[in-house]
Design goal:
Number of strands: 11
Distance between the termini: 30 Å
Shape: globular
Strand content: 15-25%
Largest sheet: 11 strands, mixed
Number of helices: 12
Structural class: alpha/beta
């Protein structure tokens, strides 16, 4: 198993990425890393490794990176994240991990690996350690201004991901809103609600209706919560901050600072830009877990069999995102 790691992605790269790579190698004896970045940075990591681990690391020298404030179109140029995507496409790596700019990573992956049929807007999916069990939240930053059909497609993706990646039996799917009563929410939520109710969801999943932010933290009503990328990203970071102030998350798991990208033909994990070494290591572990379970391939297969009603192909692009402009 070979994971390409973007050495220059993130607010505190390369130091935290090097730290995360070291942690990941020491924790997983079956892991091989392809380090994508400046040679001197990669050599510094190799020098810190025990001799037995050095054979599990290779290097692809790249000196340029996409900045956190850069427009996603920058992903078209030569950079560490683009080179990591190329490594996956060529078969030199099985998956990639980057803590760089989300828009650039999504753009590079969509351009380099291709999107699934009928998917225009890939989604980022994170798993939260709720009180009653893990809750899958999507989208957390991939598509900021989706339409109703995109949210319906997210319900299919989320249900499939919960079942395949986390072995959730008959996932319960909710749509994030400002109340659980029918008719609550903005225009997008009111239009998406009947689409989700009519959708045929995989693995025996069922739509339980509108959900509130409390349901994300408790996990008692829902296993999957669907929302747009803007709201999901804000919610995820608010939960991170709340856990930090409260002294940490529930014992069953940490707050995720990594999310899987669903909708492109490859295993891609995007870490939080503010990730530290342990967060990068967790992102690498997530990529390894997904690849070992062939999770992305299985979710893609389930989406391919979904009814046309939850496919995005015909959805109007009235509000293209920055990533879509870059594409």
């Amino acid at each position: 198993m070979r994971i390409a790691v973007d050495l220059l992605g993130g607010d505190d790269a390369p130091a935290v990425v090097v730290d995360g790579a070291l942690r990941a190698l020491r924790a997983d004896p079956g892991l091989h890393l392809l380090l994508v970045g400046p040679t001197e940075v990669a050599e510094g990591l190799l020098g810190a490794l025990e001799p037995a681990h050095r054979a599990r690391v290779t290097v692809r020298p790249v000196r340029t990176a996409v900045g956190m404030a850069d427009h996603p179109v920058a992903a078209r140029a030569e950079s560490t994240v683009r080179a990591a995507v190329t490594a996956v496409r060529e078969g030199a790596a099985d998956a990639l991990v980057s803590a760089g700019a989300t828009g650039a990573t999504v753009t590079a992956a969509a351009l380099g690996l291709g999107r699934w049929p009928h998917v225009r807007r890939p989604a980022l999916v994170a798993t939260l350690p709720a009180v009653a069990g893990p809750v899958v939240l999507l989208d957390v930053g991939g598509s900021l201004e989706p339409g109703p059909a995109t949210l319906a497609r997210h319900a299919v993706l989320g249900a499939a991901y919960a079942a395949v990646a986390h072995a959730v039996v008959r996932p319960r799917v909710g749509l994030l809103s400002v109340g659980t009563e029918a008719g609550k929410g903005d225009r997008l939520r009111r239009a998406a609600d009947p689409l989700l109710a009519a959708a045929t969801l995989p693995h025996g999943a069922r739509y339980v209706g509108l959900a509130e932010g409390y349901d994300v933290a408790s996990g008692t009503r829902t296993d999957v919560v669907v929302t747009d990328g803007f709201t999901g990203n804000v919610l995820l970071k608010a939960i991170e901050g709340a856990y930090a102030m409260a002294g940490g998350p529930p014992a069953r798991g940490g707050v995720p600072r990594a999310a899987a990208l669903l909708g492109v033909a490859g295993t891609v994990v995007v870490c939080h830009g503010a990730a530290q070494g342990e967060d990068v290591a967790s992102g690498i572990a997530l990529a390894a877990h997904l690849w070992r379970r062939r999770a992305i391939e299985k979710v893609a297969a389930l989406l391919a069999g979904a009814p046309a009603a939850v496919r995005e192909q015909g959805e109007p692009a009235d509000h293209p995102t920055d990533t879509e402009v870059a594409l």
